[in-house]
Amino acid sequence: MSAREDSGDAGPAAAQAVETIQREMTAFARRARAAAGRLHPELSLVSYTLLGHLEEQEEAYGEGGGCRATDLAAHYALDKSTVSRQVAALERAALIERRQAPGDHRVQLLQLTDAGRRILAQVTESRRVAFRERLAPWSAEDLERFAEYLVRYNSTVTEPPSPSG
Length: 165
Fold this sequence. Notes:
The protein is mainly α. The protein has helices spanning 3-7, 12-39, 45-61, 69-76, 80-92, 114-135, 140-155, and strands at 96-100, 108-112. Strands 1-2 form a two-stranded antiparallel ribbon. Strand 1 and strand 2 form a beta hairpin. Helix 3 (45-61) crosses helix 6 and helix 4 packs across helix 5 (80-92). It starts with a helix and ends in a 10-residue tail after the last helix. 13% of the residues are buried.
């Protein structure tokens, strides 16, 4: 059975569930953006996400880790100009810096600065505390199921709908 048969053509209950999921995911995204602003006023949700990705790259590839701005745009399916503005703001705030790639000096890699690592760690810990508090009443089984569903949802790669529908 295809994903479309699973959710789109399974009847009114499935259609209503998809509508509820869409509405709740939108509310979740709005809340996440607002919470990011409260946790660190100068660090937007997009900036936090980009810093987190840079940290993952450093952890995966060590000292020479990092990535190009175009890699960030591709990874998050963001417009290059959007990433460019975010990167410029993070550089002005001294949270990231550009370095030459070890194997190709024509390539500029973005890497966290020490200040960037500190702020990312502070915001990450604040987010963990907020999630733990919000999810405290949930059973371990519910948490595990929710985590599995989120991983499953986020691992499904789909093309954006065409403008004509």
